[in-house]
Write a structure and sequence with these properties.
The structure is a single chain. With about 290 residues, the protein is an alpha/beta fold. Helix content is about 50%, strand content about 10%. Helix 4 links the parallel strand 4 and strand 5. Helix 3 crosses helix 4 and helix 10 packs antiparallel against helix 11. The radius of gyration is 23 Å and the shape is elongated. Bound molecules: NADP nicotinamide-adenine-dinucleotide phosphate. NADP nicotinamide-adenine-dinucleotide phosphate binds next to helix 1 and helix 4. The site of NADP nicotinamide-adenine-dinucleotide phosphate (NAP) has 21 residues, from helix 1 and helix 4.
Length: about 290
C-alpha cells in the first residue's frame, strides 16, 4: 500500500504528486496517458497499471484532472471492478459548487469519505506557497489534512462541500477581468510606445493597495453600505469612458472598455453615481 494515490498527471496533478513524493509520502500515480508518469516514477512513485489498481493501492485518492465530468468518468470505471468503501476521496479538480455536491453524493453512495478542494496557485507554487481551500465533512477534513498540509497553505472553509468551489468561481470571475484588463492595458501602453512589461511592473508596485482594495470591496458589499466612497462610481465611470475614445483613436478593440464603460454608465443612470465603485454589484443580481 502507498500513503496516497494521485490520479491525473497534467501540469497540476504532476506538481501535486511531485510535492507529496519530495516530502516523504509513498505515492502511487495513474494517468490516462501513462507516459506522463515517467518523471514521477523516476522520482520514486509507483505507476498503477489501471485506475482500479490506483484506487486499491492507497487509503487516500487525490484527483486532479480537467473537470468533474472526467473525474466522474474515471471513478465510474474504477467502481465497476473495485470498492471505494472506507477510502478518502480528495477532489482538487476545479469546478462549480453543484458539481462538488454531486460528487460528494457519489462518494457517499460508494461509502467513501469526500473532501472537495480548489487550488489557488500555479503548479510551481505547489509544496511552497500554494493556497488550497477545502470544504467537506470534519472527518474527511481531518483525514486529508496531513496530505494537503504538504502542498501549501491549507485553508478549510467549512462543512458545506460546495464552498471551496464557490470561492474558486468567485476568484475566477475576478481573474477574468484581471486577465482581459491587463491584455487591453498592455495594448494601450504599446500604442503609446511603452511596453507591457512596464505595465506589469507598475501594477506590481501597487499590488499591496490592490490587495487591500479587495478586502475593502468585500466588506462594503457584505455590509450593503456603499455610502462612503473615497472615489465615487461617477468618477471611475468618467475615467473608464475615456478608454473607449482612446482605443478608437489608436485602432484598438473597444470591446472590453465599452463593456466596462456601458456598465458604469448604466449604474450612474440608475442613481448610483455618488456611491462606491462596487455598487455596480446592485446591477448584477440581488444581495443575499
Ligand atoms: P492539464 O495539464 O491539461 O491536465 C489535464 C489532466 O486531466 C491530464 O492528466 C489528462 O489526462 C486528464 N484528463 C482530462 N480528461 C480526461 C478524461 N476524460 N479521462 C481521464 N483523464 C482525463 O490540466 P492542469 O493544468 O493539470 O489542470 C488540472 C486541474 O487543476 C484543472 O481543474 C485546473 O483548473 C486545476 N488548476 C490548474 C492550475 C494550473 O495553473 N495549471 C491552477 C489551479 C487549478 P491526459 O494526460 O491523458 O490527457
Amino acid at each position: 500500500m502507498s500513503d496516497i494515490s494521485v490520479v491525473g498527471l497534467g501540469e497540476m496533478g504532476s506538481a501535486l504528486a511531485s510535492a507529496l513524493l519530495s516530502k516523504g509520502r509513498s505515492v502511487t500515480v495513474w494517468n490516462r496517458s501513462a507516459s506522463k508518469a515517467s518523471p514521477l516514477v523516476t522520482a520514486g512513485a509507483s505507476l498503477a497499471p489501471s485506475i482500479e489498481a490506483a484506487v486499491d493501492a492507497s487509503p487516500a485518492i487525490m484527483v486532479c484532472v480537467s473537470d468533474y465530468k472526467a473525474t466522474r468518468d474515471i471513478l465510474e470505471v474504477a467502481a465497476r471492478s473495485t470498492s471505494f468503501s472506507g477510502k478518502l476521496l480528495i477532489q482538487l479538480t476545479s469546478g462549480i459548487p453543484s458539481e462538488a455536491r454531486e460528487l460528494a453524493e457519489w462518494a457517499a453512495q460508494h461509502q467513501a469519505e469526500y473532501l472537495d478542494g480548489a487550488i489557488f496557485a500555479w503548479p510551481r507554487q505547489i509544496g511552497i506557497d500554494a493556497v488550497i481551500l477545502t470544504s467537506g465533512a470534519p472527518e474527511a477534513t481531518a483525514l486529508a489534512q496531513p496530505h494537503i498540509d504538504l502542498l501549501g497553505q491549507n485553508v478549510s472553509i467549512g462543512e458545506e462541500v460546495g464552498a471551496a468551489s464557490a470561492l474558486f468561481s468567485g476568484a475566477l470571475a475576478y481573474l477574468a477581468g484581471h486577465w482581459i484588463g491587463f491584455a487591453h492595458g498592455a495594448r494601450v501602453c504599446e500604442s503609446e510606445g511603452l511596453t507591457a512589461e512596464m505595465l506589469g511592473e507598475t501594477l506590481a508596485r501597487i499590488a499591496p493597495a490592490l490587495g487591500e482594495d479587495n478586502r475593502h470591496m468585500g466588506k462594503v458589499i457584505t455590509a450593503g453600505d456603499y455610502s462612503l466612497p473615497e472615489s465615487t462610481l461617477r468618477t471611475a465611470g468618467t475615467d473608464i469612458g475615456r478608454l473607449v475614445h482612446q482605443a478608437m483613436a489608436r485602432g484598438l478593440s473597444t470591446e472590453f472598455p465599452k463593456f466596462a464603460a456601458d456598465l458604469f454608465a448604466r449604474a450612474i443612470e440608475a442613481g448610483l453615481g455618488a456611491e462606491e465603485h462596487v455598487a455596480i454589484a446592485k446591477l448584477l443580481g440581488p444581495q443575499r
